[in-house]
Design goal:
Elements: H1 6-19, E1 26-29, H2 35-41, E2 45-48, H3 49-62, H4 64-74, H5 89-99, H6 104-108
Parallel strand pairs: 1-2
Length: about 110
């Protein structure tokens, strides 16, 4: 959830958690010092918008190509998208073979 004020985010998080104790709640907060309040209110994840924007601005000065990729990822419906794909044993084996990862089997285990 993203609301205009941090105190409203805390109240909305408390309300959402009360309505559904097992829900995944991702909340945005503007200031770092308020992030712990959202966690204590029941948020599963907290994103601090001012910190994220600051890091992106700093990164833009040293690695402009990375910020272009991040901007593309943040644009919904165009460019790059992050998708979740299930990993099957067959796909894992192909991945290990194609990348020639010598530690693949040790790190994943024989049955993973």
């Amino acid at each position: 959830m993203a609301v205009s004020r941090d105190d409203a985010a805390v109240l909305a998080t408390l309300t959402a958690r009360e309505l559904n104790p097992s829900a995944t709640i991702v909340a945005a907060v503007r200031e770092d010092e308020n992030a712990h309040l959202l966690h204590e209110s029941g948020a599963s994840s907290v994103i601090t918008s001012s910190s994220a924007a600051g890091r992106l601005l700093g990164l833009a000065t040293t690695a402009p190509h990375i910020t272009e990729v991040l901007e593309d990822l943040l644009s919904v419906g165009s460019g790059l998208d992050i998708v979740k794909r299930p990993i099957t044993m067959r796909r894992s084996v192909r991945s290990c073979i194609s990348t020639r990862a010598t530690r693949c089997w040790r790190s994943r285990g024989a049955g993973s």
